[in-house]
Amino acid sequence: MNLKHLHSLSLRLIVSLALVVFFFFDFAWADDFLNDESYAEQTTTADVKDPLEPFNRAVFTFNDKAFTWVLEPVATGYSKVLPADIRGCVGNFFYNLGEPVRSVNCLLQGRFRESGLVVSRFFINTIGGVFGLADPASREFEIARVKASFGQTFSVWGIGDGFYVVLPLLGSSTLRDFSGDVVETLVTTSYYPWNDDIVTSATVFGIQDVNYISLHLGVYEDIKSMSFDPYVALRNAYFQSRNKMSDHVILSNPTLK
Amino acid sequence: MLQKKIVTILILSFCFVTLGMIFSNHAVYATPDPTEQFRPFLKKVTDILADPELKTIPKNEQGRRLINVVKERFDFREMSKRVLGQQWRDLNEKEQGEFEDLFTRMLQYAYVGKIDEYAGQKVEFTQQRVKGERAEVQTLLVDRDKSVSVAYIMLLRGDQWMAYDVVVEGVSLIRNYMEQFKEILKKDGYAGLVRQVKEKIEQIEKEKKRN
């Protein structure tokens, strides 16, 4: 056997091995519910550390009290005054205002088709849905909502999570996602129609929050009453639902909302 | 020359076998359709929930009636096994059975509160994925002002698809409990976990009596 043959043989062996490795690793990495690996070891917290746990737990307790004593009663009262349909419209209105930023984020992440979809959603809903109060883009045109945030963009650019943080009133985040949220807030407020003074802006954000909670009443209590350690349960839920968001391409739902 | 041929054939057959093994996981044989099996089951559950007679019987009886139907399509043993992870293998058969009973009872108590909240929400089947003996059936629970995505993760047992996880808005119930249990196991061991699950059941029972 001469040297040339040996060379081509080893090349073939390397290529086939590379294929095998590629397949195995591809499966192992995908966060797929149909894969046993995704259950075998906890992936979420292993990826993102929680070095500030004692501090985070303190903020968590504060948020819990703030929610139970202030935000939830306010949202409950609000939900009694306004019927669910109108609250849905308020939610749609704020969601629609965020579409331009979402479209830019899609562009920055290289999701060009989705970026176009978001732009068309914005125009359809602003014109056909009367300033975004209704969502005809989902209902009539069947263009599903697209999720895109600055946190995701940073992640696509290779910026790591840093670590897990619980922020006062804002809740679960990571260092990277929180930075993304700050940028997002700065950008969205710059083109909001009420960016004149901080009090108005804060009130608008407050309304947005109360409206959101009023549409999800009882969800937090359910999680709390059914869990053994609400702090761990919510940290895990945060990472799991965030993973789902980044699966937007694979699991995007063609149906409404 | 002959030696070279043999080596080539050996390497090629090795590649084929390995690739064949990988792809066979993906092949869909004549397996039953998971959505078709799950649809009548969910219909049965929502029918029971919508039955006005259900609200007239005692809470505990309500839960028992519901869990008996749910057992037709949910594999609680598989759920208990997954939620414990590594620990499951260290338990003997009797302990495994005991934990299964305990965990099933906890889920039963936790979800019986949901009976009152059911107000005719509709279930829409959106899509399904089958991968070997695993399947995911995605549904949408449509309410008046919002809809919630709920996916069921299933395992093929014989010719029956049995669910072992529920994923609500991307959050898996089993993985969520798994992480909480892992922390408890690390701190208090298995005995501590059993004690805490029992306490949880008592706590839910007490809350129910108060209401």
Strand order of the largest sheet of chain A: 1-2
Largest sheet of chain B: 5 strands, antiparallel
> Percent helix among the residues of chain A?
over 70%
Low-pLDDT runs of 5+ residues of chain B are none
Strand content of chain B: 15-25%
Shape summary of chain A: globular
Shape of chain B: globular
Helix segment count of chain A? Answer: 14
Ends apart, CA distance between termini of chain A: 65 Å
State the helical fraction of chain B. 55-70%
Structural class of chain A: mainly alpha
Order of strands across the widest beta sheet of chain B? 1-2-3-4-5
List unreliable stretches of 5+ residues of chain A.
19-30, 248-257
Radius of gyration of chain A: 23 Å
Order of helices and strands of chain A: HHHHHHHHHEEHHHHH
Give the tags:
heterodimer, A: 257 residues, mainly alpha, two-stranded antiparallel sheet, 14 helices, globular, disordered C terminus, B: 211 residues, alpha+beta, five-stranded antiparallel sheet
Task: Explain the overall architecture.
The complex is a heterodimer of chains A (257) and B (211). With 257 residues, chain A is mainly alpha-helical. Chain A has one domain (3-251). Chain A is 70% helix and 3% strand. Chain A contains 14 helices and 2 strands, in the order αααααααααββααααα. Chain A has helices at residues 3-29, 37-40, 44-47, 53-81, 84-97, 99-108, 112-128, 136-139, 150-156, 175-191, 198-215, 219-226, 230-246, 248-251; strands at residues 164-167, 171-174. In chain A, strands 1-2 form a two-stranded antiparallel sheet. The longest helix of chain A is centred in the first third of the chain and has 29 residues, at 53-81. Chain A is globular and about 65 Å long. The relative contact order of chain A is 0.11. Chain B is of the alpha+beta class and 211 residues long. Chain B contains 7 helices and 5 strands; from the N terminus they run H-H-H-H-H-H-E-E-E-E-E-H. Chain B has helices at 2-24, 34-50, 59-70, 76-84, 86-89, 93-112, 173-210; strands at 122-131, 134-142, 147-157, 160-168, 171-172. In chain B, helix 4 packs across helix 6 (93-112) and helix 6 crosses helix 7 (173-210). The longest helix of chain B is centred in the C-terminal third of the chain and has 38 residues, at 173-210. The interface between A and B is large, with 49 and 52 residues.
